Amino acid sequence: MSHTWNLDKLYLGFDDPQFAFDFARLEEIIKEYNRFQPRFASYENKITTLNEFLRLNIEFQLLVDKLYHFASLNQSVDSTHQQAIKYITTFQMKFTELTATETIFKKWLRDFPNIEEAIASDKLLEEHRFHLLEIIHHAQYMLDEKTEILISKLRQSGSSAWGRLQSLLTSTMAVPYEGKEITLSEVRNLAYHQSADVRKKAYEAELAAYKAIDKSLAFAINGIKGEVNTISEFRGYASPLDQALVLSRMQETTLNTMLSVMKDYLPMFRNYLKRKAQLLGHKNSLPFYDLFAPIGTISRTYTINEANDYILKNFKTFNNRLYEMAYRAFNEGWVDYLPKKGKVGGAFCANLISIKESRVLTNFDGAFGDIITLAHELGHAYHGEAIFKESPLNSDYTMPVAETASTFCETIVNKAALREAKSDEEKIYLLESSIQDYTQVIVDIMSRFIFEKTVFDGRKKTVFDENELKEIMLDAQKQTYGDGLDPDFLHPYMWACKGHYYSGGLSYYNFPYAFGLLFAKGLYARYLSNKEAFVAVYDDLLAATGQMSVEDVAKLAGIDVTKPEFWIGSLEIIKEDIDLFMELTK
């Protein structure tokens, strides 16, 4: 089994004749796309025009899925890959050639006479009902064609370039540690080390290393947030957060209800953190460098094969489809496991609808948390399996529901491991590993939300230097972690290492993680109450995520996410784990 992923089903390389053929076809599709402009000047043969335009869009989406993913996946494991970088830039510039036609089409569709009647009269249009009506809804935020083209082109030298800079700097930064240089991913992975001395030294090395790039990253984040502020205001959004909610297909009521309940439960997490500090011998609260310190007697690390076997065993308890998908992922080269210089940090999953497979990137280091990360990303892959049967135009699910299947798979593995625990010490280890993750997804995510909102609001009036950004981050951490963390040992550079802040088209990629965790917990409770019935509903729910609002997806499982009762119920499930941990560590 290879420890790197295999992209051959996309292309054998940038010199593959099929890559050249598809690239040429992409250029031809762009020309065909733009030849629709005169047809959007009237509503003569409007149903035929719309049908043919949708068919061309489907072909375009499948082709872009192959070409762009091949370049971006290559670049993600080697940020200095010049061909990949060149093609990513080329594709982004090519996409700007569609902007005028896209804008004209959206306005044409917005004013389409008797659109509901037209949709009902055509099978392809009916299949894409939600997609078409959503375009009409979003059309209210469009600007004129010339402005849309200008924005699209300027983004290539604006937010897109700033985002690539952050990725390049953080993936290639050399961190001096113990007489040698290691990558940022490697030094951050040491936060899970058994040795307290190693964890603290790694934390100090990480913070010191950022000083070499923090000014550049401050410029990048200021540039991106300033651009988003300007464009969202001109489009008519109340704020970038309003825009994020529209793109998430989520009501503000849902977000506010969830955040309010999360805030009410922060003391529960702070008590856990203080107990962990006591167990680790700290007199005061927990220092940031010990957030991920292992607790309990299980100190083993896992090989990649052991991690795979562990996941397969536990996935099989849910259904055969999940097991079989993971088996294929491990044996057919879907996963790129190990950290290396130039590889991006963290983890992600790319659903490749063009080949009906996914590719998963992790930075596996052998800790139990790495198994959970792998299970999380394979959850995204399972979500992909559900949507691969849908049209490419119906497969675009939003950020909040994007984290549902991934978090559900984490829960499967965590709960199974806890049931198999052979001693209280093993239970403590497993519980604490889970609670670590919950703390990140509830407490740390809230700090990231506060940080991003503060930066967005402040950028309307000023520019923040690196020291001001550090202070904003520290204040956000104090608001959420409270007395759970030692105020002398926080992490002022969390804004530097998180790529989610550096996107011009995807703001507030933080609260969806909390939604995903708590929604998945609620779903898992329903799974336990009636396993056979739930498994049948679950795949349909995932498949529908590209064609429904967050609230309507939840209703498929009988859940009302606008009410606090659901969120309270989900946090009470987490409270059970924390209460058990507190009892076992008295």
Describe the structure.
This protein has 586 residues and is mainly alpha-helical. The protein folds into three domains: 17-157, Butyryl-CoA Dehydrogenase, subunit A, domain 3; 178-297 and 440-501, no CATH class; 304-424 and 518-562, no CATH class. 65% of the residues lie in helices and 3% in strands. The strands form two sheets. It has a three-stranded mixed beta sheet with strand order 3-5-4, sandwiched between helices. The chain has a two-stranded antiparallel sheet with strand order 1-2. Helix 15 runs parallel beside helix 27 (564-584) and helix 16 runs antiparallel to helix 17 (320-331). The longest helix has 36 residues, at 424-459. The protein is globular, with a radius of gyration of 24 Å. The two termini are 44 Å apart. 41% of the residues are buried.
Key words describing this protein structure:
586 residues; mainly alpha; Butyryl-CoA Dehydrogenase, subunit A, domain 3; two-stranded antiparallel ribbon; 27 helices; 65% helix
- Give the number of domains: 3
- State the secondary-structure class: mainly alpha
The portion of residues assigned to helices is: 55-70%
Count of DSSP H/I helices? 27
- Amount of beta strand: under 5%
Biggest β-sheet strands, sense, barrel:
3 strands, mixed
Short description:
Helix content is 65%, strand content 3%. By secondary structure, the protein is mainly alpha-helical.
What's the arrangement of secondary structure elements?
Elements: H1 17-34, H2 46-77, H3 82-96, H4 99-110, H5 115-120, H6 123-127, H7 129-138, H8 145-157, H9 159-172, E1 175-177, E2 180-182, H10 184-189, H11 196-210, H12 214-235, H13 240-248, H14 252-264, H15 266-279, H16 304-315, H17 320-331, E3 335-336, E4 348-352, E5 357-361, H18 368-387, H19 399-402, H20 404-419, H21 424-459, H22 466-481, H23 494-497, H24 511-529, H25 531-543, H26 550-555, H27 564-584
Parallel strand pairs: 3-5
Antiparallel strand pairs: 1-2, 4-5
